[in-house]
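Posting for a labmate who doesn't have an account.
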Amino acid sequence: MDVKVTNTLHHYIGGQKIEGTSGRFGDIYNPATGEITTKVPFASADEVRQAIATAAKAFPAWAATPPAQRVQILFRFRDLVKQRTDELAELLSSEHGKTLADAKGSVTRGVEVVEFACGIPQMLKGEFNEGVSRGVDSYSVRQPLGVCGGITPFNFPAMVPMWMFPIALACGNTFVLKPSEKDPSVTLRLAELMTEAGLPEGVLNVVNGDKEAVDTLLTDPGIASISFVGSVGIGEYVYTTGCAHGKRVQALCGAKNHMVVMPDADMDQAVDAIMGAAYGSAGERCMAISVVVPVGERTADELVERLKPRVEGLKIGPYTDPEAEMGPLVTPQHYEKVKNYVAVGVAEGAELVVDGRDVKPKGYENGLFLGGCLFDKVRPDMRIYNEEIFGPVLSIVRAENYDEALGLVNAHELGNGAAVFTRDGDCARHFSSAVQSGMVGVNVPIPVPVAYHSFGGWKRSLFGDLYVHGPEGVKFFTKLKTITARWPSGIRSGAQFNFKAGGEH
């Protein structure tokens, strides 16, 4: 059922709903109708500082809580999320627009990271060396950072927050989260479920807002680290500003993911993969395949011939339609931005094989729907090739041979993910080794790692040194301390003022 009653959201600080006091608000849309349904308060700097102070107050007791007790709360949270998946998915879809199946899938992927976080105690084990010198032992431990901040995007308002705060909390940190102002309701609901699971007040806080809230998180000395997922321009700003203020930063940014299709590929498999990877979630995901590189003219012609009717036949509709394969875009501003990219591609000389700009599902003529768009004969000098569109727009860039295809991928400034479809093991092995991308798929179009591996790109798709979730996530949310200890036994005595050979000192 479409949401039609306009209401106002809140912040979530200290385990409680907190009304906004800044007097500034943003609009949240039902993308299927184009109507404003909700107002979201934009936090002032003072409101964000209140959340940081609340998290700082909660930190000592939470950090001192044994890891096994911390993860018991995460186990309960995991169960609550699984029980309420339908509720969370509908809340998510009503603000984002993606189909219910897509929304449920994203919640499930978030839960997988929660499950990984539940096993973190064994990853917090240090290392120990006995007798590094006479009577001297050396060991290392991992300790929490303090108050951590997270800034998450609109495209996965449940999954991406769950990439961050469960691991941070399991490691003993407290957290201040700023979700996207476009669809924050499901994120706020997750915070409420954490409280219901038994999380102490102040350990997880959520503040809504815009640049003022972001800048406060980036500059306030009470924040130890920043995790970010979003566009390249903002990600670079988050990284440089956060680092300049002494914070540890991981900024996962945009992508232009290529899928190379070799002449020997299983074409049925490749077409099915492209349809899901390019048009799933209306292309609003950083791991979407937005460029396909068929090798050879025959491969390209067959691929376009097969794709054209499939793209034209996409079932476009609201999330309430169980047959919908693709929903609307998230806001009017983003809808116009993506439509403009299609116009740019036409002006640049690309061949628009399928034009989805006139799609209007019956009864939702004012919705933010854009049908699948397919460009052929796109050149690397075109804007639609170089820039991330973040919508259901797929570009075909033809390559004469494998080396040219690989070169295209490696020359792009973004290196989030890449895939190759082939039956040739030698080709797949070489591509996996030589491609300049952080995540690689072999006959897998969207190579998102499972939760116990880490997610992150190369080049300008990542600012920072550590990926999100998995082992790298644990490293990011902890700091290493190495301790060298000597306990006098009374057997040896006398001061020593010099180092001796053989490691004695």
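Reply:
Got it, the structure tokens are right above this. Residues 1-5 have pLDDT under 50 and may be disordered.
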